[in-house]
Amino acid sequence: MSITVSNISKSFGNQKALNNVSFSIQKGEIVGFLGPNGAGKSTMMRILTTYYKANSGEAEVNGHNVLTSEQRVQKSIGYLPEHNPLYLDMYVKEYLAFNADVYQVAKERIDIIIEQTGLTVEAHKKIGQLSKGYRQRVGLAAALLHDPDVLILDEPTTGLDPNQLIEIRKLIKEIGKEKTILLSTHIMKEVEAVCDRVIIINKGEIVADKKMDELREVEEQIIEVEFDYRVEEMLLNKLPNVTHVKNVGGFVYEVTFNTIKDMRPAVFDFAHDNELKTLQLSRKNKNLESLFTELTS
Asked: Which positions fall inside the ABC transporter domain (predicted)?
């Protein structure tokens, strides 16, 4: 395993940021670490990168314990924090040369990374002159300089415009062919576009851990229907393949079915048989966004 986390807990005073968190990530996976703001994502990232120490539990990166082998862990990891700490008055190549000295990396590596991250044209510009998208590329380049096996990216696309988003996602996917990547975000589309797997955290606890293929194959749909007057939920539960019925306000109901077959005709027939008028009828498949909402609301 590239990353192993076992029963990690972390508190700040009386506030518990992480509670008995466990997960593992295999070499070559791109894993999305998804959760609402304040869920514990950044705290977990900082424990893995040795910036924070856990109160209890263990974590390893490339077989190195984050508590007892800090330097080995740091050499194994490339880290892009949420607030990318760049020197805006330095030139791109100058900044990467500075980082190469810190990591004791051969200067030849700088040109390789500049090309890999698409910074060839910007290499002789000041970082302060770059768009946010290119600044993120500089941060990624710095994280990749020492050729780490594991990349930890904390909210790497926050504040980017749509074109910059596409470019950075493409770059992360390309890098992920050779590296293990843990990507923290609160953006569902980010995970769907880039990741092989998603771990969802809420209030400091893991609430889901699924491969993206499993999520895409979920045979479940939600029919939202509005009638002209209130219906007993027990009556809607008699529909075939129903797993859950919920009144979402007024005369509107969400009916969940465990089948991919379109159940709108069945709901329409139900309304007709019970002399109900259907004012609105729509279908949505259960996806990452609905799972996230369900688990974190």
From this structure: 3-228
Per-residue pLDDT of the chain (297 residues; tens, 9 = 90+): 799 999 999 999 999 999 999 999 999 999 999 999 899 999 999 999 999 999 999 999 999 999 999 999 999 999 999 888 899 999 999 999 999 999 899 999 999 999 999 999 999 999 999 998 999 999 999 999 999 999 999 988 887 888 888 888 998 999 998 899 999 988 888 888 899 999 999 999 999 998 987 776 666 788 999 999 898 888 899 999 999 999 999 999 999 998 878 899 999 999 999 888 999 999 876 667 777 777 787
User: Identical fold at 3-215 and 218-296?
Assistant: no
Distance, CA of 192 to CA of 212 (rounded, Å) = 7
Tell the CATH superfamily of the 218-296 domain: Pseudouridine synthase (3.30.2350.10)
**CB-facing half-sphere around the CA of 262: CA atoms within 13 A:** 6
Q: What tokens appear for 41 in the block?
A: 């994502």
* Non-local CB neighbours of 147 within 8 Å, separated by 6+ positions: 105, 109
CATH architecture of 3-215: 3-Layer(aba) Sandwich (3.40)
Distance (Å, rounded) from C-alpha 190 to C-alpha 193?
A: 5
Give the whole-angstrom CA distance, residue 286 versus residue 211: 15
Report domain extents, the chain: 3-215, 218-296
